[in-house]
Amino acid sequence: MENLPNCPQCKCEYVYHDGSILICPECGFEFQAEDVQEKVYKDANGNVLVDGDTVIVIQDLKVKGASSSIKKGTKVKNIKLIEPEDGVHDISCKVPGFGSMYLKTSIVKKS
């Protein structure tokens, strides 16, 4: 089975070939495979991040509704890189002692 990219417009995963172009059955968008570029996620030091990496928080972070903050040096394992819904936070992870939350790539470094 060929690994085709998701539709760049509606993110549908059921894209199919029609000759030399790709077509999305949900929104009808037609595009070339070369038009789709994978986003590269980089940490504060410029290292490329991938799903499953372990990162370290590089500054203290205040958490709304919590009595304490995430301390500098906190190790976060098994991150998941996401397309930011709010345009800012692009890491989904579980921070020890705080639970599930979103972080920015600019405040972590790869360990």
List keywords for this structure.
single chain; mainly beta; N-terminal domain of TfIIb; SH3 type barrels; 2 domains; three-stranded antiparallel β-sheet; 0% helix; YjdM_N; YjdM_C; hydrolase; YjdM
Task: Write a short abstract of this structure.
This protein has 111 residues and is an all-beta fold. 0% of the residues lie in helices and 29% in strands.
Q: Could you walk me through the main structural features you see in this protein, from its secondary elements to its overall organization?
A:
- The protein has 111 residues and is an all-beta fold.
- It folds into 2 domains: 1-38, N-terminal domain of TfIIb, CATH 2.20.25.10; 41-110, SH3 Domains (SH3 type barrels).
- The protein is built from no helices and 11 strands.
- It has strands at residues 16-18, 21-23, 30-31, 41-42, 48-49, 55-57, 75-76, 80-81, 91-95, 99-103, 108-110.
- The chain has a 3-stranded antiparallel β-sheet, with no helix packed on it. A 3-stranded antiparallel β-sheet has the order 7-6-11, with no helix packed on it.
- 14% of the residues are buried.
- The mean pLDDT is 89.
